[in-house]
């Protein structure tokens, strides 16, 4: 799976996610995956989905709020993001 996170986060695991995932045991040997410092969610978004419980957390409530909104209202979030102006001059 090669999904890119919409969030760039300080200390993010974008470049190391594949290496981290290689260290996981075989998915059939566990039934719960917990990502306690989700940040940009690079690991959970790049790992293969499997039939188990997945839980994420982070100490930053706004970040968790974003991920909950992304999970529950993905279409609305995508629509709003597409309507944002995109140019170097504006930002």
Question: In a few lines, what is going on in this structure?
Answer:
The chain is α+β, with helices and mostly antiparallel strands and 91 residues long. It has helices at 17-22, 42-46, 61-72, 74-82; strands at 32-35, 53-56.
Describe this structure as you would to a colleague.
The radius of gyration is 15 Å and the shape is globular. The mean pLDDT is 87. Strand 1, helix 2 (42-46) and strand 2 form a beta-alpha-beta unit. The protein has one domain. The protein has helices at residues 17-22, 42-46, 61-72, 74-82; strands at residues 32-35, 53-56. By secondary structure, it is of the alpha+beta class. It contains four helices and two strands; from the N terminus they run H-E-H-E-H-H. It has a two-stranded parallel ribbon with strand order 1-2.
Sum up the overall morphology in one term: globular
Helix content: 25-40%
**Structural Rg:** 15 Å
Biggest sheet descriptor: 2 strands, parallel
Structural class: alpha+beta
Compile the SSE list and pairings:
Blueprint (H helix, E strand, L loop, with lengths): L16 H6 L9 E4 L6 H5 L6 E4 L4 H12 L1 H9 L9
Parallel strand pairs: 1-2
Q: Main traits of this protein?
A:
alpha+beta, two-stranded parallel sheet
